[in-house]
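tool_log.txt
---
The assistant was asked to compare two proteins side by side. It first ran the structure predictor on the initial sequence, then on the second. Raw inputs and outputs are pasted verbatim so the downstream comparison step can read them without reformatting.
(1)
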Amino acid sequence: MSEPLSPTDKVRLAKEISDGVKRYIAIQNGLLKFSFAKALGFRSSDPTAAANAASDLRGELSPLLDQLRAHELSDQFSITLRGYLRQLLQAMDVFLALCGRLAEARAAKDKAYLRKGGFKADLEKLQEAERAYLVLG
């Protein structure tokens, strides 16, 4: 069995995860947050750019989960941190899928996706996935 995480490693991992969450929220807000400029057509959000940024961020956070898995987790903080990160990565997968469907709908000029509930259903899936990691945080 491997060694437990040192206090220094716990702090470093927690800080990296916290920074990742802040960046993830900024990416999400850039795509999904309402603004009058977007509503009036002065500004447009780009789901492909958001997906690329989120995918890059996911690639940065995934090794952290591997680091947590490589150690014996003997305290509640480490166990919770691993579960939190796992749920965060799953929420990011849902967000990436939403970005993909939104980009496809925009490319096809398919407004039915936005108006007939497809987008709303995808947002509800995202909210459910986010609740899972927020409950742990």
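(2)
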Amino acid sequence: MTDPLDEILGIGTGLTQEEMLDVTAARLLSVNEQIEKLKAEKEALEDRIHVLTPDEAGVAVVSGKQYEMMVTRSEIFTWDSEEIMKKIATVTLPDIVKVKYSLDKKKYLSLAPSEQKDWFDVLERKPGSPRIKVTKKF
């Protein structure tokens, strides 16, 4: 009974262990190189799709003649810790103490718009990485 991997590697059973190791190692290196090239190509294609689709958070559906893409993009909130500290600081801490403040996104979003406005100056909103789903049209 032959090993299916031997067929993939195109080798026979008459090889020594060292020869088998060399053939297998060479193939593994080749496969790893192909994977890296494919990853780079995938990243380049996703970057192109990113340029061709809206940059806002949410779901965007775009169509070509043969394919349709659904791009889902979340929104990332980051908070300026130093500015928050200035807003709420009541006690002066020694320089040796480091504090990082943040706001709870869900609680922030549940605030009334007038209350959210109080925190606009410490909020940075940016689109997250897109998730892309491609389907072929029939």
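---
observation on (2): The helical segments are 4-9, 17-52, 81-88, 105-110, 113-117. The beta strands are 58-63, 67-79, 123-136.
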